[in-house]
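Structure ticket #2291
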Amino acid sequence: KDYAIVNVEDLNCFEANTEVTIEKLQEKGLVKKTYDGLKILGNGKLTVALTVKANKFSNQALQVISDAGGKAEVI
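Resolution: structure written out below.
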């Protein structure tokens, strides 16, 4: 499967407590095509608490999102 890939550091463009979906990522231009879903990778720092909805998360991404006070939801 091919996934649209986004790093956690790219999610800092969202306001705290935003529910981040692939559609919101497309609106911001972070994802061009939806492919077979969305995968979040753990590169960089996340400074806002977000609810991130994606098909897959790396273990590092799960840790970074959690450390920032947010939560990861597998869809």
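Closing remark: The helical segments are 22-27, 59-67.
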